[in-house]
Amino acid sequence: MQLTPEILQQSHKTILYIVSKYPKYLRDDLIQEGYLGLMKAAQKYNPDKNVKLITYAVYWIKHYIWHYYQKNNVQTETFNEEDYFIEDSSYIRTYQKQLLDKLAVGVLQLDERSKDIITNRYLKEESIYLHILGKKYGISEERTRQIEVLALLKLRQILDK
């Protein structure tokens, strides 16, 4: 699969999110490793498996970061090798199902406006901009962002239970 500028831009947020869990002094190197992992994922990606590229790429991004740690003997408390390699795919499927069930329950607990904002920002192929959603509800872009943040916090609390 060819990595287009759009795919790279969309994947940038995911790479930054993964890298944000590590010490700041390593971030530039880890972002580069993340992109190497993304390129590897694009080479091995099979669209016939009904899995989004970014879902598949997360494994390779984390793998390349782990490899960087191993290669450079980086010592940190935040890194746990077991978080990155799970052999039992049935465990992964069970865990994913539990998370999706909790997420579905959480989304149902949101009010209609919050549910719509979260759906349009995160659960669709193309995210809708905050200012567009704000116009839809007659509120400012900033207020739309605040509603989004509150809804995400509520979902996170539900997922953490």
Keywords:
161 residues, mainly alpha, Arc Repressor Mutant, subunit A, 7 helices, 70% helix
Tell me what you see in this structure.
With 161 residues, this protein is an all-alpha fold. The chain has two domains: 79 residues; 72 residues, Winged helix-like DNA-binding domain superfamily/Winged helix DNA-binding domain (Arc Repressor Mutant, subunit A, Orthogonal Bundle), CATH 1.10.10.10. 70% of the residues lie in helices and 0% in strands. Helix 1 packs across helix 3 and helix 4 crosses helix 7.
How would a crystallographer describe the biggest sheet? none
- The helix content is over 70%
Distance between the termini: 38 Å
Radius of gyration: 18 Å
Residue-averaged pLDDT, rounded? 82
Number of strands: 0
The helix/strand series, from N terminus to C terminus, equals HHHHHHH
> Structural class of the secondary structure composition?
mainly alpha
State the shape: globular
What ranges have pLDDT less than 50 throughout 5 or more consecutive residues? none
Number of continuous helical runs? 7
- Tell me the number of structural domains: 2
In terms of DSSP E residues, the strand content is under 5%
